[in-house]
Amino acid sequence: MFDVVVVGAGPVGLCMAALLLQNGHRVAVLERRATSGRQTRAIGIHPPALAALDAVGAAHPLVSSGVRITHGAAYSGGRKVADMDFARPSAEYPFILSVPQYLTTHALESRVIDLDPGALHRGVQVEEVVDDGGHLRLRGQKSGAPVEFLGRFVVAADGVHSAVREGLGLEPRLRTYPDYYVMGDFRDDSTYGDNAVLFLEPGGIVESFPLPDGIRRWVVRLGAPCQEPTPHALAALIKKRTGSAVDSASNTMISAFGVTSRMVSRMIHGRVALIGDAAHEISPIGGQGMNLLVGRRCLGADHQRSIANIRGRPCHQGTRWIRAGPAACSEESHLAGQPQHGAGPPLAPEGPQRKERGDRPSHHLADVLGACCP
Asked: Per CATH, which fold does 1-43+100-172+264-374 belong to?
């Protein structure tokens, strides 16, 4: 029996798992992908997120391998119109750290494995979560064979297309914006060094950031979606708007995306907590996504207050994939979406509790998640 089962081994799920493990909880992390991959994706880590990573012992290897961006400049029409100082906001981390996301994931994964070598379970596809009253039973597949995990609570950190969220029957509020971008990583032949650069041009903004190993990220705003971006077309657009020559043959990553936001109405559902993109997807521009989700030690203040108020709510109307067993609720309460108060102990039980792993008590959701994220 695990205290918490975290579904999803991205930066947010791994950060949460490391925090829980550091606080003495038994944790399993389930990830459907067999390997972690090497996508650069989100590259900029802001000081609050670095502080959160430092709290779990994952900041040092990233700072050692990343590019420290302390300054930036904005240009328009070929002349500098503004300077940006990224050293002022934080005395502890007077820079924005530029590092490929796969290195962030690797640092957090290594930390989780250091804390508990058996915590991470890759290749696990969760198919069903059953609320048995006193715990949750997660069933799924690994390499074609059935697997099962038992946990007192589940933290869903399985991304914007969260299977756990879908299983709860939750439809996040979706909003789309008329903003479209194409971005690519190229060999850095510029003279900008370790500086960030913005080009404020009539055709649309262009952003440029350094990466380790002599690579530079370019992000170009478009007026319409780009279905099939190519390095050659992106390099030509960069040249047209900024005058900077980019070698299209040196491209190592290219991606086109639009801006959307998704948000669930509540992040706590009985013994299940939604965090990260599973709870709220925001625009990735400016590094908002990963920084907001990893920052504040994976949980914002509002989320912590929600956790602190949680009590048993084992069932909800329309839940089929995550279903309640006989000990969790009656059929009437399941259909009504109401807690069945006689169906077992609340999530904040009173009185002495059996202690495991030394003097660590069995906590309710507020203690398990909230206490480790002050």
From this structure: FAD/NAD(P)-binding domain (3.50.50)
